[in-house]
Specification:
14 strands, 2 domains, binds fe (ii) ion, mainly beta, 5-stranded mixed β-sheet
Length: about 200
């Protein structure tokens, strides 16, 4: 479907929303291309100062095991993997609660209440992986994982990934325009759900 037709079918005309966080403008109702990973809403549950870990479920909350892996690239395409990228990750538990259900900066007083939050660093080939549990659902949101990616020489990216087959994707205002690039297919191997999420970061200058 061409873009005009898609927008018309969505009943959105040419309405545009300015996503000020990154200084770019994304048209509401327009599906993403896969050239650069698009930004998404940060939401209210981000805590600054989480720890490096490949196991986000370090408090052993109940849920179905999930392994997310992928590669971060510089610019468009897959020619230039980026090492040393910090990927901050956070998501809710299987019942839709964040730990804590709040946001801010992690300090000594609240550090022991943290769960399902942490960061990983990409290796020399731009690769990363982390284990956790499948996030649940809350409010009107589709199932999702939050990320902030940062590395020298590239614009920071605040984004989210979604789960292929989730019936809420077309009715959640954030996920419905995500296109295929951030909708991750998870395959079950034994007791583990495995998915691949790749990122393309915009070079500065
Ligand atoms: Fe969220």
């Amino acid at each position: 479907m061409d873009r005009k037709k898609f927008l018309k079918n969505m009943g959105l005309g040419s309405a545009a929303i300015a996503l000020a966080a990154c200084g770019t403008t994304q048209e509401l109702g327009e599906e993403e291309d896969c050239k650069l990973t698009h930004l998404d809403d940060k939401g209210p549950f981000y805590f600054k100062g989480s720890s490096e870990t490949v196991n986000l479920n370090y408090t052993n909350l109940p849920g179905e095991a999930m392994l997310v892996s992928g590669t971060v690239y510089s610019g468009e395409g897959t020619e230039t993997p980026l090492s040393g990228v910090k990927i901050d990750i956070w998501h809710c538990d299987s019942e839709g609660n964040y730990h804590p259900n709040d946001g801010g900066t992690i300090n000594n007083e609240n550090a022991d209440k943290m769960a399902l939050r942490g960061f990983v660093i990409t290796d020399k080939n731009g690769k990363f992986s982390f284990k956790s549990i499948l996030p649940g659902l809350y409010g009107r949101r589709s199932r999702h994982i939050h990320y902030i990616l940062s590395v020298k020489g590239h614009s920071s990216l605040v984004t989210q990934s979604y789960f292929k087959g989730d019936p809420r994707i077309p009715i959640d205002g954030l996920s419905k325009t995500a296109g295929e690039c951030r909708i991750v297919k998870f395959d079950k191997s034994g007791e583990l759900y495995m998915g691949v999420m790749n990122f393309n970061l915009q070079k500065k200058g």
